[in-house]
Write a structure and sequence with these properties.
This protein has 177 residues and is of the alpha+beta class. The chain has one domain (26-174). It is built from six helices and five strands; from the N terminus they run ααββαααβαββ.
């Protein structure tokens, strides 16, 4: 009887348990450092006149906020605001950023990826290749608030007001709708 050839997917599935490693956990010190670094990078983004978006809010939520001694990651939500309100000027500036990214060697799979580059660029700068950071758009946090009927805890750790003063005060919030 001829042996049936297994598909690549079946072979990968058999190997998967052998490849899995125990997930590394962060120490509180490392998690605190990651939070501080995100705030520093948000300030740097807001100070960079070439960036097309401001980081207006950064919030901490999840296991690190709850005080877990060895969190698996640090959950951060961020909110962006376009610097340019005129659509035509913003689009021109966005295409310049895409051209600069192409010149620096970045490749985009689709035109849609190019259209979203202004936001992706900020996200990549905030994350800074840190495996311990889990970044979420502000809409994700708002969705969690709705799903949990407002019981999710978060801490606003950075807030920037583009056309006024910057408020660096840390606020503790328990949001209820």
């Amino acid at each position: 009887m001829a042996e049936e050839k297994k598909s690549d997917f079946e072979l990968e599935s058999e190997l998967e348990p052998q490849k899995r490693k125990k997930a590394l956990r962060l120490t509180r010190t490392t998690a605190d450092r990651l939070v501080s670094n995100v705030i520093e990078r948000a300030r740097a983004i807001n100070a960079d006149p070439d960036m097309l978006n401001w980081v207006t809010k950064v919030a901490l939520f999840g296991s690190h906020l709850k005080g877990k001694e060895r969190p698996g990651d640090v959950d951060i939500a961020y909110q962006l605001q376009r610097r340019e309100s005129d659509g035509a000027r913003w689009r021109k500036a966005a295409m310049e950023r895409v051209r600069a990214a192409h010149a620096a060697g970045r490749r985009f799979s689709t035109y849609i990826d190019e259209l979203g580059w202004d936001q992706d660029e900020v996200r990549l700068k905030l994350k800074n290749r840190s495996a311990g950071l889990s970044l979420h758009g502000w809409w994700d946090l708002e969705g969690l608030i709705r799903e949990t009927k407002g019981t999710i805890e978060y801490r606003l750790i950075y807030e920037y007001q583009p056309h006024g003063s910057t408020n660096f005060e840390t606020l503790e919030r328990r949001v209820r709708y």
